[in-house]
């Protein structure tokens, strides 16, 4: 039996208090592991030092920003990944990479268990534990907040009693999770779905109602991957960071929704994802230009399934891997440029072009000289509607 447990550490109240709780409940030494997925706001070295001050015997910080963008955000762009057609999987995308490093760090240090600070009401407990189960099935998962029913009030009392260096206080009513792909805000007055969000909860986006000049950009995609903004080459991470700035300044990417949690309850959530909404809108429009009709129709069904798998914590499942193969195959011709107007909280597509375009002007034009032979339409419609005509005759005869 190992005497160590690796804790996914955010630097917040629950995981800071969780270090002591884990030591008390298990007798194990706690190793805190913090992952930089572009959450910003705090220096990662400060978070590392806070973990040590809270009682961790070791604190590991991993810079995973490029990996997160390349291996998790890019697949989401290719899949036009939106849960319930709206949520760009902000938190759901970061959990599998955190779980990957939890399992990896536990193996490297010889620990037999990992821990997280999730409650029993949310999706993240499932995402962490399902991912770890797929990667390292022999590891034990511990959730002190959930398993010991430790409330926020008790956590604050514990922190005060032990003089823990945490940032939260009773004056901070929101639960916030963020990374470079976006920001999620919940709890507090937002738990009443009738209450409108207030401007103070937003940090990634400016107020879209404030008058300002529009911003127009051109995004270049290469096989579904954003590779340039306004002609300047960018990595996926650079594209997301830049679009967060440009689209966020126009209030793009605000989402207020009631979503269906995996645990069976409905939850009111507020999200900000300026780059996410902009890139998915642009990518989907380029697909409309470059993917044939039947493949595009089928891909939309796959996209919904893909988003649900990711939301439900099954990133490392066999079905998810197989869907990735299909989605990647659809992207071989998704290269070109999309012009986007950012203004008033909207990312509006105003132009698209591609060397792989399936749009044929001569077929599409209504002007003289078009090559579409309209005389063939009559016979096509007769054959296309023949099954409906035959079944209608049967129905009429039966009813008559």
UniProtKB/TrEMBL annotation:
Main location: cytoplasm
Residues annotated to bind ATP: 8-16, 117
InterPro entries: Arginosuc_syn_C, Arginosuc_syn_N, Arginosuc_synth, Arginosuc_synth_CS, Arginosuc_synth_type_1_subfam, AS_cat/multimer_dom_body, Rossmann-like_a/b/a_fold
EC number(s) on file: 6.3.4.5
Nucleotide-binding is among the record's keywords: yes
Subcellular location: Cytoplasm
Ranges for domain Arginosuccinate synthase-like N-terminal: 4-165
Residues given in the record as L-aspartate binding sites: 119, 123-124
An annotated GO BP: urea cycle
Span of domain Arginosuccinate synthase C-terminal: 174-390
An example molecular function term from Gene Ontology annotations: argininosuccinate synthase activity
Entry GO CC: cytoplasm
Pathway in which the depicted protein is active: Amino-acid biosynthesis; L-arginine biosynthesis; L-arginine from L-ornithine and carbamoyl phosphate: step 2/3
Keywords tagged on the record: Amino-acid biosynthesis, Arginine biosynthesis, ATP-binding, Cytoplasm, Ligase, Nucleotide-binding
SUPFAM superfamilies linked to this entry: Adenine nucleotide alpha hydrolases-like (SSF52402), Argininosuccinate synthetase, C-terminal domain (SSF69864)
Pfam family, one: Arginosuc_syn_C
Catalytic activity, reaction form: L-citrulline + L-aspartate + ATP = 2-(N(omega)-L-arginino)succinate + AMP + diphosphate + H(+)
Binding positions for L-citrulline per the UniProt entry: 87, 123, 127, 175, 259, 271
Subunit comment: Homotetramer.
Family of this protein: Belongs to the argininosuccinate synthase family. Type 1 subfamily.
Protein name as it appears in the record: Argininosuccinate synthase
Gene name of the record: argG
């Amino acid at each position: 039996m190992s005497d160590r447990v690796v804790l996914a550490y955010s630097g917040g109240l629950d995981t800071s208090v969780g270090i002591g709780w884990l030591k008390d409940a298990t007798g194990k030494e706690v190793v805190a592991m913090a992952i930089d997925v572009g959450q910003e706001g705090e220096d990662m070295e400060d978070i590392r030092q806070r973990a040590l001050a809270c009682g961790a015997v070791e604190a590991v910080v991993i810079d995973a920003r490029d990996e997160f963008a390349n291996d998790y955000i890019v697949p989401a762009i290719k899949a036009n990944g939106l849960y319930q057609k709206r949520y760009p999987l902000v938190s759901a995308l970061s959990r599998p990479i955190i779980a990957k490093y939890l399992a990896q760090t536990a193996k490297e240090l010889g620990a037999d268990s990992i821990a997280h600070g999730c409650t029993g009401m949310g999706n993240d407990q499932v995402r962490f534990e399902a991912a770890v189960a797929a990667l390292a099935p022999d590891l034990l998962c511990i959730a002190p907040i959930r398993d010991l029913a430790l409330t926020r009030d008790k956590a604050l009392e514990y922190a005060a009693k032990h003089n823990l260096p945490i940032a939260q206080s009773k004056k901070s009513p929101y639960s916030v999770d963020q990374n470079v792909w976006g920001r999620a805000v919940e709890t507090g007055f937002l738990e009443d779905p009738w209450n409108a969000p207030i401007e103070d909860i937003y940090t990634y986006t400016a107020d879209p109602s404030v008058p300002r000049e529009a911003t127009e950009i051109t995004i270049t995609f290469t096989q579904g991957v954003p590779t340039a903004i306004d002609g300047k080459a960018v990595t996926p991470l650079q594209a997301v960071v830049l679009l967060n700035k440009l689209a966020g300044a126009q209030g793009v990417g605000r989402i207020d929704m009631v979503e269906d949690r995996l645990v069976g309850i409905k939850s009111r959530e507020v999200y900000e994802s300026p780059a996410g909404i902009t890139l998915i809108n642009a990518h989907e429009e380029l697909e409309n230009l470059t993917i044939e009709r039947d493949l595009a129709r089928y891909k939309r069904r796959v996209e919904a399934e893909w988003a649900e798998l990711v939301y439900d914590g099954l990133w490392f499942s066999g079905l998810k891997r197989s869907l990735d193969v299909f989605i990647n195959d659809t992207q071989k011709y998704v290269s070109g440029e999309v012009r986007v107007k950012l203004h008033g909280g909207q990312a509006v597509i105003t132009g698209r072009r591609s060397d792989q375009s399936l749009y044929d002007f001569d077929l599409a034009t209504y002007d003289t000289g078009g090559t579409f032979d309209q005389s063939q339409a009559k016979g096509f419609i007769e054959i296309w509607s023949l099954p409906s005509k035959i079944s209608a005759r049967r129905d009429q005869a039966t009813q008559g």
